[in-house]
Amino acid sequence: MIDEGFRLFPEQASTVAPRVDALYFFLIAVCGSITLLVAVLIVYFAVKYRRDARVDRRRRQAHTYAIETAWIVIPLVLTMIMFAWGASLYFGMSRPPAGAIEIDVLGRQWMWKFQHPEGNREINELHVPRGRPVRLRMISEDVIHSLYVPAFRVKHDVLPDRYTGLWFEATKTGEYHLFCAEYCGAEHSRMRGRVVVLEPADYQAWLGGGTAGLPPVEAGRRLFEQLRCDTCHRGGGLAGRGPPLENVFGSEVRLADGRTVLADEDYLRESILRPQAKVVAGFEPIMPTFEAQVGEEGLMHLIAYLKSLSSQGGTTTP
Ligand code: CUA
Predict the structure, then answer these.
(1) Quick one: which of 93, 78, 117 has its CA closest to 14?
(2) What is the dihedral of CA 293, 298, 299, 301, to 10 degrees?
(3) Which residues contact residue 75 at a Cβ distance below 8 angstroms, ignoring those fewer than 6 apart?
(4) Average pLDDT per block of 10 residues along the chain, 318 residues long
(5) Is the dihedral of CA 229, 233, 234, 239 positive or negative?
(6) C-alpha of residue 149 to centroid of ligand 1, in Å
(7) Residues with CB under 6 A from ligand 1
(8) Is the bond preceding 71 in cis, omega lying within 30 degrees of 0?
(9) Ligand 1 atom 1: residue of nearest CA
C-alpha cells in the first residue's frame, strides 16, 4: 500500500530526489533569510523612526560604495549559484544514462498505458526494478497530459504528435503515486496510478508472469512486413524505391531540399505519417502516408523496430 500518512514532502525514492530537494531547500533558505532580514528591518526602522521619537534625522551621505557593491555582488553570487546548480541538475535529469530500460508510455483521456521492452503491458500501473535507470518514451493520443511521480521528483508533459522523455532510477522498493499533472478534461483528477518498485530479481519474475504481449521490436517488425514497407525499403543493401533503413536512427540524414536533419524518434514518426515533409536526398516523394493504418502504439512499435536496425539504437535522445 502507498503510505498515505501526513508528510510535508513525499518520500525520496529515486537518485535525483535528494538532489532536487537539496536545491529546493537552498532556494527556500536564501529566499527565507532575505525575507526575514527585510521584515526585521522594516519593523526596526518603523519603531526607531516613529513620529515623536528623538532620533537624529539629519540627511546622511547619499553614496556609500561599500553598500552598493554589497547589494550588487551578493545577489549576483547567489543567483549564479542557483543558475549553475539548477542547470547541472536539469541537464542530468534530461540525459538518460546509456543502457536504461526503455518503457513506452501512452497517455489518453483518462488512463496511462505502459509497455515494457519484453512486451508486458500495464494500465495505470508501472512496475520497475530498483537500481536500474528507466527511460519513459511518452506520447499522448489526444490532449496534453503530464506524467508526475512525486517520490521520484520527476514530471514531464506528454504531448500529442511529439515524443517526450523522462528517466529515473528508483532507489527504494515500494509503491508510489503516479499522477497526471496537467488538466486534461473532466476526469483528469482520476488519471492516476501507482509505480511499483521491485528488487531486480522480483522484477524479472514479474516480467515472466502475467500475459506478455509481443516485444515492441518484434511487433514492429511484423507490422513493417504487414504494411509491406519492405517493398520499397528493401534492406540488406538492395536498392529500393525508398532509402534503406539500417543505421538511419541516430544518423544525420541529407534531405532533397539540401537540409540535414538528425534522424530521431520524432523524425521517424513524421516520415511515417507525413512522408512528404522531409524527403531524403536522391529519392522521389512517392511514399503514401500511413496515418490511417498505424495508431500511436503501432508507431511506437515501428520506431522500436527501426531503432533495433541501428547500431545507435541503444542511445536515445530525450
Ligand atoms: Cu491527463 Cu490530466
Answers:
(1) 93
(2) -150
(3) none
(4) 75 93 95 96 94 83 87 94 96 90 92 90 92 94 94 94 92 94 93 94 86 79 82 73 79 83 85 82 79 82 86 52
(5) positive
(6) 13
(7) 107, 110, 145, 180, 182-184, 188, 191
(8) no
(9) 145
Return the sign of the alpha-carbon dihedral for residues 29, 35, 41, 47: negative
* Closest approach atom of ligand 1 to CA 188: 2
Q: How far is the CA of 124 from the centre of ligand 1 (A)?
A: 12
d(CA 274, CA 140): 18
pTM: 0.79
CA–CA dist 141, 209 (Å, integer)? 28
Distance CA 102, CA 115 (A): 9
Size (the chain), residues:
318
**In one letter, which amino acid is 147?**
L
Residue 181 C-alpha cell reads as 499533472
CA distance 119 to 193: 20
- CA dihedral (34, 40, 44, 47) positive or negative: positive
Q: Which of 307, 268, 251, 20 is nearest to 139 (CA)?
A: 268
Task: Report helix, strand or coil for 141.
Answer: coil
Ligand 1: nearest atom to the Cα of 184: 2
Rounded to whole angstroms, the Cα distance separating 196 from 125 reads 7
Amino acid at site 298: G
**pLDDT recorded at residue 316:** 45
- Give, rounded to a whole angstrom, the gap between the first and last alpha carbons of the chain: 32
